[in-house]
Design goal:
The protein has 212 residues and is mainly α. The protein has 10 helices and no strands. The longest helix is centred in the N-terminal third of the chain and has 26 residues, at 4-29. It is globular and about 55 Å long. It comes from Nonomuraea insulae.
Length: 212
């Protein structure tokens, strides 16, 4: 039998795995998705042991996601000199980690899950941090004046959902390019040209077929 410390570490790791897995499933199918896929990927016994019902799992995913996004926003503001770079970094990291701003902020209100104090507090912290970044980018003259915090939330949600029918590596490549293209469109002109070569439709079809 393992030492208590190892057992606690294993339990913590399993809980994190379930939350991360559920986040991916919710990102593709929404918080109303069946938990069958989460159970298949993590084991039904582990899922039931850590989260006895749907509400407890959805609360954990929302709370964890909000904490991560607040941390990303605060790090971006502290470590980047320019507000535009903070905003770009925040959007890119949220998309890369599949953290859906819109779903997390709407949370229980939009999906019929009972409210929880930690989710309400996390939502308030995230909205405050996002408003500060967007406001600073406006003051800097880098962000288009017709782009608001709600637009940023919607953009991140679309980027997170991505293209689940594509092979994972190609989907991630397209997500990265799309992040840069969308950010370029949100920036007050002149905007820098996004890095990388344009992907033709023929190349996309060929690369999708190669993974079939």
């Amino acid at each position: 039998m393992g030492a208590p410390g190892h057992l606690q570490a294993d339990a913590k790791w399993n809980r994190k795995l379930i939350i991360d897995t559920a986040r991916g499933v919710f990102a593709e199918q929404g918080p109303g998705a069946s938990l069958d896929e989460v159970a298949r990927l993590t084991g039904s016994d582990a899922l039931q042991r850590h989260f006895p019902d749907r509400d407890s799992l959805v609360h954990a995913v929302f709370s964890d996601g909000l904490d991560r996004m607040v941390a990303l926003a605060e790090e971006a503001r502290e470590e980047e000199t320019w507000a535009w770079d903070s905003l770009s970094r925040f959007v890119d990291r949220c998309a890369g980690q599949r953290l859906d701003l819109l779903v997390s902020v709407a949370g229980s209100r939009a999906h019929g899950v009972p409210a929880a104090p930690e989710i309400e507090a996390g939502r308030a912290r995230l909205l405050k941090a996002l408003d500060q970044i967007v406001g600073a980018a406006h003051d800097e003259g880098a962000l288009r004046p017709d782009v608001g915090a709600g637009d940023v939330m919607g953009v991140v949600g679309l980027l997170v959902r991505g293209l689940p029918t594509l092979p994972a590596d190609l989907g991630e490549e397209l997500r990265g390019r799309t992040v840069r293209l969308v950010l370029a469109g949100m920036r007050a002109h002149p905007a820098p040209v996004p890095p990388g070569e344009a992907m033709t439709a023929e190349e996309l079809i060929r690369r999708s077929s190669d993974h079939g």
